[in-house]
Structures are given as structure tokens and as C-alpha cells.
């Protein structure tokens, strides 16, 4: 028998005690074998989950649950387990039925001890191989998700990933909902990469990051002469995404006139560039995301109800990190490894107190906040072990550098310009960090119109996508 990587466990089931004793002694000849006995099908099922056998050897004719029913139940629980059935009243029809139900082998009494020993050894090898294959498949699936940047072990996340796998191969429109920082763009990318459109690049647009007067031409393109400065035709992102997928991030922020045009694309599968009288057919899959209450926006008249139903064909809800605490430590370890390699700090680890802090923190900013906290800790940790102090953002005044001393000797106009730029950049970065890159929310916090805030972003060279998960 081939050396097994797992412990060979055998469950013997027969309502005749002398038979279970004889088979138990026989199977213990197998190196390292553990053998348990049960005197009924019901007792066997009760022992099955805790003992976790690789092989079940059972008599068919027993009072209560017979061997055939036990075979069915075992196959339901774990189809990799090999079941060998024994009977003294066998017929060809019974053997055929047992094999159809998934029995590994069917043995008639009286049987040769060497023969049944050989059959059970082969059955052990078969189950061990099947279970190793299942383990490797799960590992490959886990690695595949990790390559897409999706880390986690929680049931809540697995439910999301199951949905991703189910919808990926179709062209159905998908709406991804969830709080800022939960990783909605990663889910969109996963859907695209698992689809038949994966050979073409995913086209992404962060709707609130683009000024309203530019968003229409960005999405649908324009023709020469459509407006002042339109000296040539320009393809819109829907044309760029032809044959691929377009991801409309934060769809809840798009203005009403563009909502109408987007509805036409979803209904008619065609676009009309700005300034054109002709429509252009496009083959584009649409994935959208939002962290807003679209139903409330519909009641307020800010979002079209018909567009909502067109987008909401399949909804994937991405839970906040506080609802999937099992994912916190795997994510933290992933970010630790990522940034330790990036910043040349290999060998860093979390203290037990730091791990406890990570688990207890509410993570209102979700995965993005966790990522930023770990990145900062990797940069600032003094030793080889990250402590809770390294994870907690300090608010001392010296955490913001005081730049004034460097400029006191410079000409007033030059110093004022540079200091104003420094302040503006830090101010914009702080608001975008708080809002997870949501320009509309950041502008609201700043008391500015969105377009004015976007101009400020361009002036200081800050991009909203750098603050999104």
C-alpha cells in the first residue's frame, strides 16, 4: 500500500458483534490504521462526523438503517469517503444498485481475508487522493482570489465570491453595493477577469471625480465641432469598452441628464456622441457601484427609478469589515507582507496585543482604513514587532510638520504661494481620506461646489482614486 499523507481511519458497521470484532482485528494489520466499530447504521452516522473515516465497511442487512441507506447518507455528507458493502444474501441486482449509489466495492460472505484487506487498502488510497485533490482545488481557488486582491475567509465574503462566480460568465448588469472602503472595485475587477471579456481591459471611471460638464463627453465621446475646442472626433469610454466591461464607480453621483443617456445605453445597446445625429452600437457589459441609498435618492427625485431597475438586475452587497471580523487578520497579514516588502522591512510581525487591537477596532473606514493603518505602522514601527501604539494614529501637533521656519527668509510672495499649496494639498488629502475618495462628500465637507473642489484637486495634483480601496 502507498504511504498515505493522512491517517488511515476505517469505520466498521455490522449488527453482529463478532463480525465487527473480526474485521477490526483484520484492518488493524494496516500500518497506522485507526479502526472504530458501530453496531447499527444510526450509531455509525453518529460516529462519522467526529471520527472522520476515510473508508466505511458496512453490512447491508441490518435492523433499522440498512447498509444501502447508510451509503446514501455518507455520500451526502462526504462523497470522497469510500464505502465498501458486505452481504451474505447478495444478488447481481443488489450489487449493481450499490455501485450506482456510489459504493466503492461490493463483497459477498463468506469472503477471503486477504481480498477484503486489499480492497480496503485501495479504498483508503482512493479517498486520500480525492481529499488531497479537493484540498488543492480549494487552495488554487484561494490563490486565484488573492491574485485578484481579494483576501478573506469569512462566510459573508465567501457568499459574495460565490455570487461573483455565478454572474461572471453572463453579460448581466451588476450593481455592487457597500460602504466606502469595502473593496467594490476589486469585486468588479474579479467579475471581469472571470468573464469571457477578460482578454480586453476593464474600463473604469470614478463618476464623482469627473466634472459634470466633462463626464458626458468622457462617457459617450463627441464629434468635431460639438463645442468650442472640439477640433477632432473623440471616442467615449463606452466605445473604448466595446467588447469589454465598463465599471461605473459611485453611480449615485451622476447628474440627471447623464442618467437619461446611460439608460439609453442599457436599453438600446447604443450611444450617441455629443454633437452627433447618429447612434453607434456598442457591446459593453456594465458593472456599477454605489455606497449611497439609491432608493432614498429616487424618492428625492435625484435618481431615475427606471435606471435603477436597469442597473439592479443583479445586486452584490459587500458587507463592511465589522460584519466579517474573520477577514481582519488575514487582511492585516496580507498588508503587512505587502508593505514590509515594499519598504524593505521584511521580518516585521504583529504583537499579540496588536492583533487583539486589530480585531476589536470598529474599522469605520473598512478595508481601506485597515490598509492605511498597517502601511503607516510598517513605516513607523521602531522595532521588529508592531505594537498597538504603532497602529493608533497619534494626534500630537508635531505629527503635522511645521514648515514656517523654512520660509521665513524667503520673499513673501514665494513663501505664501508654497505654504498655501502645502496647506491646500494636505487639506484635500485629509478630506479624501475621510470619504474614501468620494469627491462629492469631500466637497460637501469643504463647503465647496463639487466642480470647485475638483479644480482644487487638479491644482494640488491629488487624485481621488489614490484614496479608494
Automatic annotation (TrEMBL):
GO BP term, example: phosphorelay signal transduction system
GO cellular component: cytoplasm
Residues in Sigma-54 factor interaction domain copies: 150-379
Gene Ontology MF annotations: ATP binding; DNA binding
Residues annotated with 4-aspartylphosphate modification: 59
Localisation: Cytoplasm
Listed transmembrane segments: none
Primary localization: cytoplasm
InterPro entries per the UniProt record, alphabetical: AAA+_ATPase (IPR003593), AAA_lid_NorR (IPR058031), CheY-like_superfamily (IPR011006), Homeodomain-like_sf (IPR009057), P-loop_NTPase (IPR027417), Sig_transdc_resp-reg_receiver (IPR001789), Sigma_54_int (IPR002078), Sigma_54_int_dom_ATP-bd_1 (IPR025662)
Span of domain Response regulatory: 9-124
Top-level taxon of the source organism: Bacteria
Keywords for this protein: Activator, ATP-binding, Cytoplasm, DNA-binding, Nucleotide-binding, Phosphoprotein, Transcription, Transcription regulation, Two-component regulatory system
PANTHER family: ALGINATE BIOSYNTHESIS TRANSCRIPTIONAL REGULATORY PROTEIN ALGB (PTHR32071:SF113), TRANSCRIPTIONAL REGULATORY PROTEIN (PTHR32071)
Protein name (database record): Sigma-54-dependent Fis family transcriptional regulator
Native source organism of the sequence: Thermodesulfatator atlanticus
Lineage of the species this protein comes from: Bacteria, Pseudomonadati, Thermodesulfobacteriota, Thermodesulfobacteria, Thermodesulfobacteriales
